[in-house]
């Protein structure tokens, strides 16, 4: 390293020899350049990682929410299944009871057949009145819209009639979407002849004889259910 | 990069690229290769000091913000406050050019040294290099004739320089170049083509002092004249007397390098009837000429 001309003429004290100038070669500039490039790369990587981490966190939170929703649904389904099993068992019990009560089968079919899924039954009581001839008192409580009640009762009455039973309304009340219905179910003599496998009953001598049936179709079973 | 410093400083100097840059104060390197930030320029003589800002650029140095201030006391009485307000921009490094403090003599018995080697020898072993030309307590510069065995020996009194450097040090400025204005001007003007061919003779005016040398057609330096204090006030001058003593012919031309007298004396009126040309640089103002000449290498 030398000065191009001896014009420097520096009057200061000169102690440095040119070969002592410990200046790193230009190619070594790659070291700080690589350092700064790596630094910038790390910063960009950190920013990229942070950016993606937020996205993944959001996605994870959304998935957790979905899982929680499905778990809630599963819990609700379990509750529903449990309730359905209870209802099914209750229905099976009713069905078994009905199986052991052949007389009431037609009555129940007549009651339930016209009901659609929109009608929700809260309570049903059937009570047989004393006596040999089957007559039932019905107490039915169900949910349905007010304008459909008359139609439902009519369909129920028609359905029962198709199976040989007549439905007589005793009372009907509607309060807060719940309809309370009370009535009598009696056999239609002309459609439901009664036969007994047992010996006929004799007329009670202490009672006057019952009047004859007015309709010819009712001749088959008499009023007491004794076949003639 | 310093090898003795701790590893943290070394690592930092690499990361900040300082390790790839020479020290700004390194005297054996050209100024343009070691100055990367603006530095202050201080041209100081017995009666005046001038400050400016020197900015490095791709095309060279640019100069601005000149401030002139008269000195009516000796350099030993300088105060740090005199320098603090001389620069309109905050600078840490200074290029110092001293004017009017240099004596010159034409010698033919000084052996030329390799360029940087001569700089180091003049600083450390001046007596060995200069022999009987050496005077104690002086700093020397040498201007060699490129074609002949002769040189100008310029000496500056060390006590004056130390007094100046002490004050500058107290202001916490770092001196990155210390030159004689007269020497750098003479070096430049002797390198002009018309001077080397003997078609013009240099006349240098530095702080009221005048120097003249005659150059032969073969490039030999044929004697010199020096007179101190030819200009002593804005109105008074002995320049005309000095020029008349040169016994110039009608065909002789002067190349006048005016580094700025202490009193802004109009030298043109003393040069009437003389063939002369001012040494000027188109891109640099006349008042910045000493700073321009000091930044050549």
Structure at a glance:
Chain A has 228 residues and is an alpha+beta fold.
Structure description:
The complex is a heterodimer of chains A (228) and B (297). Chain A has 228 residues and is α+β, with helices and mostly antiparallel strands. Chain A has three helices and four strands. Chain A is rod-shaped, with a radius of gyration of 48 Å. The N and C termini of chain A lie far apart (147 Å). The C terminus of chain A is likely disordered. By secondary structure, chain B is α/β, with parallel strands linked by helices. In chain B, the strands form three sheets. In chain B, strands 3-2-1-4-8 form a five-stranded mixed sheet. In chain B, strands 11-10-9-12-13 form a five-stranded mixed sheet. In chain B, strands 5-7-6 form a three-stranded antiparallel sheet. Chain B is globular and about 70 Å long. The chains are: A alpha+beta (228), B alpha/beta (297). At the A-B interface, helix 1 of A face helix 4, strand 6, strand 8 and helix 7 of B.
Rg value of chain A = 48 Å
Most extensive interface, chain pair and sizes: A-B, 29 and 46 residues
Mean pLDDT of chain B: 86
What is the end-to-end distance of chain A?
A: 147 Å
* Count of β-strands of chain B: 13
* Helix-strand string of chain A: HHEEHEE
Number of strands of chain A: 4
Strand order of the largest sheet of chain A: 1-2-4-3
Integer-rounded radius of gyration of chain B: 20 Å
Low-pLDDT windows of residues of chain B: none
Distance between the termini of chain B: 23 Å
- Poorly predicted parts of chain A: 212-228
Question: What is the makeup of the main sheet of chain B?
Answer: 5 strands, mixed
CATH architecture of the domain at 102-198 in chain A: 2-Layer Sandwich
